[in-house]
TrEMBL record, chain A:
InterPro entries: CO_DH_flav_C (IPR005107), CO_DH_flav_C_dom_sf (IPR036683), Diverse_Substr_Oxidored (IPR051312), FAD-bd_PCMH (IPR016166), FAD-bd_PCMH-like_sf (IPR036318), FAD-bd_PCMH_sub1 (IPR016167), FAD-bd_PCMH_sub2 (IPR016169), Mopterin_DH_FAD-bd (IPR002346)
Protein name per its UniProtKB record: FAD binding domain-containing protein
Pfam families, alphabetized: FAD_binding_5
Annotated FAD-binding PCMH-type domain residues: 1-168
Organism domain of life: Bacteria
Record flagged with keyword Cell membrane: no
SMART domains (UniProt xref): CO_deh_flav_C
Organism: Ruegeria alba
UniProt keyword annotations, A-Z: FAD, Flavoprotein, Oxidoreductase
TrEMBL record, chain B:
2Fe-2S ferredoxin-type domain span: 2-78
Protein name per its UniProtKB record: (2Fe-2S)-binding protein
Origin species: Ruegeria alba
Keywords: 2Fe-2S, Iron, Iron-sulfur, Metal-binding, Oxidoreductase
Domain of life: Bacteria
PANTHER family per record: OXIDOREDUCTASE WITH IRON-SULFUR SUBUNIT
Amino acid sequence: MYNFEFERPGSVAEAVAALKSEEAQALGGGQTLIPTLKQRLAAPAKLVSLGGIAEMKGVCLNDDGSLSIGGGTTHAEVARAAAAHYPALAALAGGIGDPAVRNRGTIGGSLANNDPSACYPSAALGSGATIVTDRREIAADDYFQGLFTTALDEGEIITSVRFPVPEKANYQKFLQPASRFALVGVFVAHYAGGTRIAVTGASEDGVFRWSAAEEALASGAALDGMAPEADGMIADLHGTKAYRAHLTGVLTRRALQAMA
Amino acid sequence: MPEINMVVNGRSMRAEAEPRALLSDFLREDLSLTGTHVGCDTGQCGACVVHVDGVAVKSCNMLAVEAAGCEVSTIEGQAGPDGTLNALQQAFQDHHGLQCGFCTPGMVMSAAALLKENPTPSEAEVRAHLEGNLCRCTGYHNIVKAILAASGQDVSGIAAE
Ligand SMILES: Cc1cc2nc3c(=O)[nH]c(=O)nc-3n(C[C@H](O)[C@H](O)[C@H](O)COP(=O)(O)OP(=O)(O)OC[C@H]3O[C@@H](n4cnc5c(N)ncnc54)[C@H](O)[C@@H]3O)c2cc1C
Ligand code: FES
Ligand code: FES
């Protein structure tokens, strides 16, 4: 990897200032960024580590019952600290990669990266979460904008993520055992206002809500045999478009079964 | 080049390194602690697992500067000062938990992290915990057996495979 300058600020304000310089980039847990730097797919002039910012770490229950998770909180910490409040989210975090990856990787890094096969985007979209940054709040429905693309501006930092806690939820991850990412993953959350279904790993446009299934559930219909359009799904050596569309239907039904 | 300080296996150590130096390279090349192995250098294989402030990390996927000021434990710190293997290392030897030995430093460090958190894991828990540690030789059975034995559980009923 090319060399860079390195800064490790102690506050969000200092990090925002450090990121203003030319070609500066934030470093979360490095579990995606370091491999990217090694391949020279990124060559920032400066890395600004978010690892020393205490105000970006931890899980806390808000007065309105929603759960806030600091953008710098590791997957391992979410698996532990969210278990009592939002078990499906904690289980998702505890199933990412492997223990060593979970000890470094952060929720902010995962959502900023928006890998089409990552787990967290489905939880954020499926929960209708709010992405809180150093400068504004973004609804999950507006945040995810396609493969590796989000609403974040240059130098914008995810400081926390606020999850409305559902009555019930479940995440079904169909493991791609070599990468340990999701081949397809479906997050289903049931709220007083309806059921949300978010799908990762399947679409060429990244995480998406399967609205047709949400509407079918709202009208009291069963999802038997239902699957999204195969058109627009990812095809690679692990699975065809039709396979991923089929898996989406199967995993959604499994999630609903687990919640029943 | 900035100087990086860390406490490695209980000893204060320091060396100059560029910001881009990986913790794995810093340990191996600058501190001459070559027990930590680099198998893939892409975060997949777990041969490079060490503990930073008590938690297992893949040292090829962490910058050395990020571990500045931290307590780092590596495979070199596991045996006693006179070279006596600790219980986990001894169990790997007794139960043939290694063949070529390349993955072993990472296996031992991952297993040590598991046993600290969960002193008597089930076989399934051991296997799940080792998800990020690849071994090309043993087929894993004897590694799992060694870890269960090191946790004080009876493994006499588990056949060698
Ligand atoms: C072996 C392995 C297996 C994995 N398996 C899975 C899996 O099963 N499921 C899954 O979802 N992921 C998986 N991952 C990815 C992992 O979850 C990463 O931790 C995550 O994608 C990136 O988070 P990070 O904190 O490491 O971010 P980094 O790698 O440090 O950064 C990633 C990107 O986000 C930016 N960034 C980081 N933090 C912030 C922030 N707070 N605000 C704004 N921008 C930020 C960086 O500038 C960079 O562009 C795996 C990774 C590995 C190495
Ligand atoms: S060398 Fe670090 S995970 Fe393989
Ligand atoms: S003993 Fe050879 S790789 Fe595990």
